[in-house]
């Protein structure tokens, strides 16, 4: 099973070869006011299928810091629906080979469901200042600068913090630390929670973890302790959504105390970012709670 997982994720890495942090432009947009209808797909979608989906163009690029990678794309959603702002943290093994652009289908669908969406880019492994703790510092900086959205007509009083995979790890860490922000919900999608355990695995994402942390757990024990959610007190609003067919982030990563956990049968790792998947429909249901 491990060799099969390594092959699948390695193949995805090959498909993404050549992707760099230089890509900051939004994909070609569908002309408004056309609404994109994402057809239903079977579970266990590929990363490539997500990158091939149509998207709508964000309305604004809003900086939260001075570094060119410290920004977020904003979709305004439907003001009349009064749905909470979603702050979205993308995944990708903390690597700069995987940028914010692959979150665009998800952000499109969430905005079409009525939510304003601010999808964050941040410095990652391979970027100057990225890795631990720089990537985490960026997410915290963005959340401390939510007032920047007010001038664009976004209500920041009600916030859902949503992160996928490595982005789920960073989002949950931020929720544990920024206690002054009262999140309506904090949702980890296939989130990495026990980073020390994860760093000892053998798939391509697991072997990228020591690069993010500048060493293995026994080499950087203090940093791993800080970055490990099992040692953090999380707010009661945290929900973990995970597929039992995820070959990239093992289901054991849902073993956190005092959080809500929902396991989705047959769902794979990238189902959460594909708006046509059953897992994504489950996410929409959770967001409406």
TrEMBL record:
One of its GO terms (molecular function) is hydrolase activity. Pfam families: BD-FAE. It comes from the Bacteria. Residues 1-22 form the signal peptide. InterPro entries: AB_hydrolase_fold, BD-FAE-like_dom, GDXG_lipolytic_enzyme. SUPFAM superfamilies: alpha/beta-Hydrolases (SSF53474). Residues 77-255 form the BD-FAE-like domain. Keywords: Hydrolase, Signal. PANTHER family: AB HYDROLASE SUPERFAMILY PROTEIN C4A8.06C. This is Alpha/beta hydrolase family protein. The lineage of its organism: Bacteria, Pseudomonadati, Pseudomonadota, Gammaproteobacteria, Lysobacterales.
